[in-house]
């Protein structure tokens, strides 16, 4: 049986941005778009050009992607032509290959929210879609509130979809905007839409998680023929979120009946990056990854029950629905580091360190990691700190310099113009090649404003490291994330620093302490040491 | 049409305890049992008596509940009688009205994990269930790995269920132990079980969330006739968790087809306690409640998209699948840069501030919010800072005290034992009622370790605020979140602080600055001012 192609449409950058507390910067949008493209989705909805400065800036410098970049907007307003609607024009001006327009399909919303006639709305849909197609773009129509609309007035809801389809929409996307529809109802209504004449190969599904069934509803639609699924990474989105692509993708690729029915564009190799990509998004958002997330959560393959853990050691399939390695995740079995050692060797290899199987350093390194993770450290993303830790245990990490002490102060008071101003000052004392060096810096930038204590410490630390100073030229802190974690019974502060050198190399380090300044300094020290360790290799590149 | 009764079986205290990182104390188990009873579930599975000291202690002093208290255990082992199995005896000795025994129903597990014959396993099921019934207890049989077992050997899986049913089990519970089964498969297999002779009124369903479909799978089983649903509060449980009763209960009570099909024992009144009960569990576990949780999450009825927010004001049903009040939750319309004046008035009303339509302060407040959001502030969650900002614009915010200046220092050096130690010290100068007061604090805690500069500043600020000091007694910082945002061209630090007072009230404030200490201090000042502003109202509650 030949499988039909199922298209994945990601809306993390648009509907995902409606998550309470989420506000992407343009740079973050670019990073996420690149990760989505790596994963292998078919469409990336980048935002609504013209609706806000971030979205507009993103489209001006959108990354080159294999996935089809899509601009989102709404159908033209009544009383003007599609050509003369400046909101629609802004969407088209983004110059994307595909354009997705949301429009009403629930009669109540047409007359109440828009305050226009049902026929005017149909005409808005027709004219807008035809205009996009006329510009040589791929058109998509998001039928807002479709399932609620179908319940109240099935003929009109279908007519909206027909209008878009007949005007040339490549996809008509059935949206359960309010998220209250149940899977059996989705199945039934989708079958009615297909019976009305729009083939499943032209239908998409867009579900929300308000009853915890966005995944189930999406899959129900796929079972009856829909061939485009919309969702977001980690289920971000308005209210309770959108359908979670991080769950949908492996289910579609690994589980019956989907695996026998459809093919996504995601390769088995990329499926192995799923856990990493999911956690990267949380990293960008400075969220704690959900431990219980299906497939990718840290607990997804953790076997705590005693009966389960012992059976798992005999045969993992006894208590696992899929092999965790397939999605890039790992098994956690309390009291067993069997799996740990081979993972560790793999990760060391990635850092360019070969350690033979059975080396006595392996359990020692695992032990140190375990202890430090109990204190609040996290080495999932802080690969540079992980590498330094392992090298120290292996005796492969030279001590370039020693920090004897530091002091940092922040003072806030009125200046002579009676304005409140801050001044941060740091003193760092290091020993390099046997020489003691005292450096002091303040954190004032070229505009005369204070950049804070971490900046002052960073400047003082790098100010005079003797023969190493040159190798640190151009290095800068590009991101700084702070999180409160539980280390034993005490609240601990975890700082993750992303650094970059002049040639654009980036690396991440971690520090943990109840004191935010100590934690920052520790991460900063790791960043400097890692740079010095790799100075020669990098210079040669 | 008369509805059939659907029984809710809660296993928070047993399977929920398998969550990684969760370890209930006996007292916590009692608290949770009382909350479950208040909610109105039919069965409370309290744990496995004899398996660990906490569970044993819980049953020794189990609270009196309307719900049927249930002890969990496993079928007797081969080679001894049910009467002589001391593991089973410990379970019966708990003296509960109902006993649930897990047993194998997958042939592979019988021969591989237990290492006994298929017939021996059937005999263990029969004898164990008969023994429980013989003691006058209600017997339940958890058919472990039932769906996987049915796939490999349907006759044997059914034979296990039949053995339990014929031996007198009130309920045969079909378990998708590994959580990989899809809803359409659940539906099909349950229909086969009913066709084999066990009525739906004697069947239960126990699902796990490994593909994010524990709720969907449970509901699929209910649709085809199963009349007991097992789950946990907030979806706690092994790996990705169990079916979430907090989602299932309102869906069963509010949504078609379930609402027309079955009746749970939960009253409409108790449904209104759902949000409170869900958050109480998180409180007991010291977890941050999931904002996006269906029905009960803080974001579940938050309308961020501009188009949605304005329609909601006309008619909430336009973007809400149920009325949030029905589940004890509330609507949130966050301030975002598109938010209009009517949103603003509504949000002010929630803070107890009435501003007439068309008041000139409204556009002024919106302008200030816009400017501050461009600098990096975020008022989505920091409701207390939003309120202070608005009150200041409206002239409704007294100045309790003035901060003249502060200074904080962190020093890290070796102590006399040659260990690196830190010391944070803060000086804050305030004017209260015309009096200048200088306070100095260090951040050492009772164990002698340093808690950092923010802690030192907080102590110094609250140390001497004259007549206001009493009103701040017991106030503490419960969460602290830091992010780097882009404010114009400069990297800015945004700090969000969650504070709590002695009576458990919580509020969030925000501060922004390139200097992390300044940003923290600003958020801290807002927290203190908000507390002082509400001191009288709160004391009166």
UniProtKB/TrEMBL annotation, chains A, B:
GO molecular function, one term: (R)-citramalate synthase activity
Domain Pyruvate carboxyltransferase stretches: 6-272
Keyword Amino-acid biosynthesis among record annotations: yes
GO biological process: isoleucine biosynthetic process; L-leucine biosynthetic process
Keyword Transferase: yes
Name of the protein: Citramalate synthase
Family classification: Belongs to the alpha-IPM synthase/homocitrate synthase family.
SMART domains: LeuA_dimer
Gene3D superfamilies: 1.10.238.260, 3.30.160.270, Aldolase class I
Annotated keywords: Amino-acid biosynthesis, Branched-chain amino acid biosynthesis, Isoleucine biosynthesis, Transferase
Pfam families per record: HCS_D2 (PF22617), HMGL-like (PF00682), LeuA_dimer (PF08502)
Pathway: Amino-acid biosynthesis; L-isoleucine biosynthesis; 2-oxobutanoate from pyruvate: step 1/3
Catalyzed reaction equations: pyruvate + acetyl-CoA + H2O = (3R)-citramalate + CoA + H(+)
Entry superkingdom: Bacteria
UniProt-listed Enzyme Commission number(s): 2.3.3.21
